[in-house]
Amino acid sequence: MVDKKKILIVEGNTREENSEFTNVGINTHTESLIESINFYKKKLDIDIANPSSDKNLDSSIENLEKYDGLIWGGSSLNIYNDTEEIRRQIEFMRVCQSKIKKILAICWGLQVAVTVAGGSVKKSTTGAHRGIAHDIKINKVGIKHKIYKDKKIKFNSPAFNFDEVVKLPTDAILLSSNNLNNVMGLNFKTKTSDIWGIQYHPEITYEKMVSLIHFRKERLIDKGAFKDQNEIDSHVGMIEDEIKKTEKTSRMKELENWLNYLYEN
């Protein structure tokens, strides 16, 4: 009989941001992640932490050793902004990297993990992934890594990020890149943790990305991500075409591979 594994999911957005999602019928990133995890019908006991908003972080920190793994998801925050919410996430990640052996760091999660491990993140100078990342290419090292088992060498993926990793932690291994972000897949180790990091969202559907674009359209136009509504409509049309070509299990292969890794001794 397979033992039930215990994992911690860390929510990167604040409770206020998540309330805005819920109010317009969009799943939080944690809800999307759990839905995708459940697709694989693994025997998992899942807890959730929100270091930006939880008042009982100390009790969570005391019990981190009980987790077999950690998944740290996305956020609309920027790691280089010095806010209390971000500082709390950085410090919680620091403790997690000293106590949990297997970590999957997704998008914002990757940026927090890299920052704690001595790397750095800055606003991308080459543009943003606006709901989709095109032509992510697995390099020669990445082809041999477990995260990319049975993954096509070049692929598209749901993604939403304006920032990028510009300095790797010591001894980190680059696994994949695309034209916008050199670091799309990364593996590095701390004294305790083996961290698999990706700068995109295999666990989130393109349909949700389209909803996020519509939900954030004023903010995205203000940031210069889109010129106007016509450009948004054209971009959304391109993503909707991608939906027709994308197969669910291929899109989520990285998540499946990490869950399989969780069950290895």
How would you sum up this structure, described in words?
The protein is of the alpha/beta class. It has one domain: 3-Layer(aba) Sandwich (Rossmann fold). It is 37% helix and 22% strand. It is built from 10 helices and 13 strands. The protein has helices at 15-23, 29-38, 57-62, 84-99, 108-116, 206-215, 217-223, 229-245, 248-251, 253-262, and strands at 5-10, 44-49, 69-72, 102-106, 120-123, 129-130, 133-138, 154-157, 160-161, 163-167, 173-177, 185-189, 194-198. The strands form 3 sheets. Strands 2-1-3-4-13-12-11-7-8 form a 9-stranded mixed beta sheet, sandwiched between helices. Strands 5-10 form a two-stranded antiparallel ribbon. Helix 4 crosses helix 5 (108-116) and helix 6 runs antiparallel to helix 8. It is globular. The model has no long low-confidence stretch (mean pLDDT 96).
Count of discrete domains = 1
Q: State the CATH architecture.
A: 3-Layer(aba) Sandwich
| The CATH topology | Rossmann fold
Helix content: 25-40%
Give me the oligomer status: single chain
The CATH homologous superfamily name equals Class I glutamine amidotransferase (GATase) domain
Principal-axes shape call: globular
Mean pLDDT: 96
Task: Report Rg.
Answer: 17 Å
Derived structural class = alpha/beta
User: What's the total count of β strands?
Assistant: 13
Order of strands across the biggest sheet? 2-1-3-4-13-12-11-7-8
The largest sheet is: 9 strands, mixed
Task: Tell me what portion of residues adopts beta-strand conformation.
Answer: 15-25%
SS element count, helices: 10
Ends distance: 15 Å
The low-confidence parts are none
In sequence order, what are the helices and strands, one letter per element?
A: EHHEHEHEHEEEEEEEEEHHHHH
